[in-house]
Specification:
The complex is a heterodimer of chains A (274) and B (303).
Chain A (H helix, E strand, L loop, with lengths): L1 H16 L37 H37 L1 H15 L3 H12 L3 H6 L4 H12 L1 H16 L2 H8 L4 H38 L10 H11 L7 H26 L4
Chain B lengths: L1 H26 L13 H10 L6 H13 L14 H37 L1 H15 L3 H15 L12 H30 L2 H8 L4 H38 L5 H10 L3 H29 L8
Helix pairs in contact in B: 1-3, 1-11, 4-5, 4-7, 4-9, 4-11, 5-7, 6-7, 6-9, 7-9, 8-9, 9-10, 9-11, 10-11
The chains are: A mainly alpha (274), B mainly alpha (303).
Chain lengths: 274, 303
C-alpha cells in the first residue's frame, strides 16, 4: 500500500521532471552506443536500444504519454458513462430498461475488436480529421474512453437509484425541480465519492489498454513513445543471439509496477471485499 | 425457449455488427486499390465489377448478407486470389486451440490454487494473494516477453514462436491463461473461504470429517459458482488477449490475421474476422450462462 503510493508519486515526479533531468534526449540516436547494457550507476543507466537511444530517457518519456493517455481516456470514460448511468437511474421505468438493455447489448460484442476496426477505418480520413484538429491521439483517446464507459454507467446508475429514494431528492422534487436541474444540482454532486473510486478503478484498465493497442501498432505512433511501444520494440529486438533482456524488462517493469500500484490503491479505496 | 431467445439475440447481434461494419467499410472513400499506381479506366471498372463495387449500396448489402449466410465474405483485399473464408477457416482452429487451452489451464490451475490457499490459510494464503495481485496487473505481452526470454532463449526448453507440435502451444497457453488463472484463484478462494467458515463446515469438522472431505463436500460448489459466473468475462478477456499473444508467438490465428488486416487496410478480412469474433464471444457467453444456470438454479431468472 505505502509502496504503491510511493511508486506512483516517484513515477509522477520523474515523468513530470523528465525534460529537465540530465538525460540524453529520448529520440537522439548514438551509433557508438548501440545496445549498451544497463550501467546502473552511470549513463546509460538502463542501457540503450538498437539505435543507441537511452532507455531511461525513453521509458520516462513513455511514462508521460502512457499516464497522460490513461488520465484523459479515463476522463472520457467517466464523462460518457456517469451521465448515462445517472440518467437511466433518474428516469427509471421504461427509459431505464431501454438504456440498460442497450448497454447489455454492447457488452455482448467484442468491443476491443470493433474499436480496432473503427480505428483502422478512420485512418482513411486522416487528412480530414487532422483538419478539424483530431489527430491519431485524440481518436485513440475517444476509442479507449468508449471501451470503459459501461462499468462507469452501471455504478452511476446503481448509486443514483440509491440516492433517488432519499429525502433530499424527494424534497427537491416536491419543490418543483425538474429533471435536468435534479441531475445537475443533486444527483451528480452526490455521485462524487463513487466517481473517485471509479476513476481509480478505470485508470489502470485504460493504461493497460493503451499499452495493449500501442503494442499491436494501433495506438500511439512513433516517434512518440509509450510503454506499449517500448515493449513492442523490445519484443522485436528479442533474439537468441544478442542478449538484450533490458529492452523488454525495463518497460515491462514500469508497466507492471504501475498497474499493480493503481490496482492496489483502487482496491483500498473501493473498500474490503472489492 | 430461453435458449431459443438467446440464440435469436445472438443472431441479431451478429447481423447488426455485420451491417454496421459493412456500411462503414463501404462508406470509406478510400477504395482498396487507391494506393496502387494509376489504373486505366477499363482496368478500374473491371476491378470494381469483380468486387461488386459498381452496384448500388442496397444491392451490395444484400449480396453481403447472402454471403454472410454462406459464411462467404468475398475475396481478401491483400492476399490476392484468396477468399476471406479460406483464411478464416484456416486460422479459426488455431485460435480455438489457443483460447480453449488457455481457459482450461486458467480454470484448473486457478481453482486448484484458490482452493488450496483457502484450506491451508496462513502463509500459503498470503503467498497466493500476493501472486494474484501481481499477476492480475501483468499484461499478457509482458508475460510473453519474460517467458520467451527465460524458457526459450535462456534455458531452451520451449520454442519461442511459430506453429508446430503441442510444444508450440505451451507458452501461449501459459501467457494467455496466467492472468485469468489469477482471477479464478481469487474468486475460488473467496467462495471456498466463506464456505469453510460456515456453520455447516464447522459441524462437519466436529463430526470428524477430514479436511479433504470437508473441502469436497462443502466448499467445492460455493467456490466454483463465482468462477462459473466469471467464465463469460474470461472468454472475452481471452479473446482480447489472443490478439496480442498470437502476434507475439507468430501463430497464424484469427487474432493475428485481424490485427494485420486492420494495419493493412484489408477490410473484407477485418470484417469477416470481426463477425467471427462476435459469434465466438456470443457463443462463449451463452455457454457460460447455461453452465451457471445448471450449477445455480437461482441464476435462471437473470437475463
Amino acid at each position: 500500500m505505502r509502496l504503491a503510493l510511493a511508486w506512483l508519486i516517484l513515477l509522477a515526479a520523474l515523468a513530470a521532471a523528465a525534460p529537465w533531468l540530465p538525460l540524453p534526449h529520448p529520440e537522439v540516436m548514438d551509433a557508438e552506443a548501440r545496445l549498451a547494457a544497463p550501467a546502473w550507476t552511470q549513463s546509460p543507466v538502463l542501457g540503450t536500444d538498437p539505435l543507441g537511444r537511452d532507455l531511461l530517457a525513453r521509458v520516462l518519456a513513455g511514462a508521460r504519454i502512457s499516464l497522460f493517455v490513461g488520465l484523459l481516456g479515463t476522463a472520457v470514460a467517466l464523462l460518457v458513462g456517469v451521465p448515462y448511468g445517472a440518467l437511466a437511474g433518474l428516469l427509471g421505468g421504461r427509459a431505464d430498461r431501454i438504456l440498460m438493455r442497450a448497454a447489455d447489448a454492447l457488452e455482448s460484442v467484442p468491443m476491443v475488436v470493433i474499436m480496432l476496426f473503427l480505428l483502422a477505418l478512420l485512418q482513411e480520413y486522416r487528412a480530414e480529421l487532422a483538419a478539424i484538429g483530431l489527430g491519431r491521439l485524440q481518436l485513440f483517446l475517444g476509442a479507449v474512453g468508449l471501451l470503459f464507459w459501461l462499468p462507469a454507467a452501471r455504478v452511476a446508475r446503481a448509486e443514483t437509484l440509491r440516492l433517488r429514494g432519499q429525502a433530499f431528492i424527494l424534497a427537491a422534487q416536491a419543490g418543483g425541480a425538474r429533471r435536468p436541474r435534479l441531475l445537475a444540482r443533486h444527483v451528480l454532486p452526490n455521485l462524487a465519492p463513487s466517481i473517485g473510486t471509479l476513476l481509480m478503478l478505470t485508470l489502470p484498465r485504460v493504461v493497460l489498454m493503451e499499452a495493449f493497442l500501442s503494442f499491436l501498432g494501433l495506438g500511439v505512433e512513433p516517434p512518440a513513445v509509450s510503454w506499449g511501444l517500448l515493449a513492442a520494440d523490445g519484443m522485436a529486438a528479442l533474439n537468441p543471439l544478442v542478449d538484450c533482456w533490458w529492452l523488454i524488462a525495463v518497460p515491462s517493469f514500469f508497466l507492471v509496477l504501475t498497474l499493480w500500484a493503481l490496482d492496489a490503491l483502487a482496491r483500498r479505496l473501493a473498500g474490503p471485499g472489492a | 425457449m430461453r435458449l431459443l431467445r438467446r440464440l435469436g439475440a445472438l443472431l441479431l447481434t451478429i447481423l447488426v455488427v455485420h451491417a454496421l461494419a459493412f456500411l462503414l467499410v463501404r462508406s470509406t472513400r478510400g477504395g482498396p486499390f487507391d494506393e496502387e499506381r494509376e489504373l486505366a479506366p477499363e482496368v478500374r471498372a473491371a476491378l470494381d465489377a469483380r468486387y461488386g463495387l459498381d452496384q448500388p449500396l442496397h444491392r451490395q448489402y444484400l449480396a453481403a448478407l447472402a454471403g454472410l449466410a454462406r459464411l462467404d465474405f468475398g475475396p481478401s483485399l491483400r492476399y490476392r486470389d484468396t477468399e476471406v473464408r479460406a483464411i478464416l477457416a484456416q486460422s479459426l482452429p488455431i485460435s480455438l486451440a489457443v483460447g480453449a487451452g488457455a481457459l482450461t489451464f486458467a480454470l484448473l490451475a486457478g481453482a486448484a490454487a484458490g482452493l488450496l490457499a483457502a484450506q491451508r490459510g496462513g502463509r500459503a494464503d498470503l503467498l497466493l494473494l500476493g501472486g494474484v495481485t501481481v499477476l492480475m496487473a501483468t499484461p499478457g505481452f509482458v508475460l510473453a516477453g519474460a517467458c520467451v526470454l527465460l524458457f526459450s532463449f535462456e534455458w531452451g526448453w520451449l520454442p519461442p514462436a511459430g506453429l508446430g507440435g503441442l510444444r508450440h502451444f505451451i507458452l501461449p497457453w501459459l501467457c494467455l491463461g496466467l492472468p485469468l488463472a489469477a482471477q479464478v484463484a481469487r474468486l475460488a478462494r473467496g467462495g471456498a473461504r466463506a464456505a469453510l467458515q460456515s456453520a455447516a463446515a464447522r459441524a462437519a469438522q466436529a463430526r470428524g470429517l477430514s479436511p479433504g472431505q470437508i473441502l469436497r463436500r462443502h466448499a467445492l460448489k460455493p467456490a466454483l459458482l463465482p468462477v462459473a459466473a466469471f467464465l463469460g468475462p474470461a472468454a472475452a478477456a481471452a479473446l482480447t488477449g489472443s490478439l496480442v499473444i498470437e502476434q507475439v508467438f507468430a501463430l497464424p490465428g484469427l487474432g493475428t490475421h485481424f490485427v494485420q488486416a486492420a494495419l493493412n487496410r484489408d477490410f473484407t478480412l477485418a470484417l469477416g474476422a470481426t463477425v467471427v469474433f462476435t459469434a465466438l464471444l456470443g457463443l462463449g457467453t451463452l455457454l457460460s450462462d447455461l453452465l451457471l444456470a445448471r450449477l445455480d438454479p437461482r441464476a435462471e431468472g437473470l437475463s
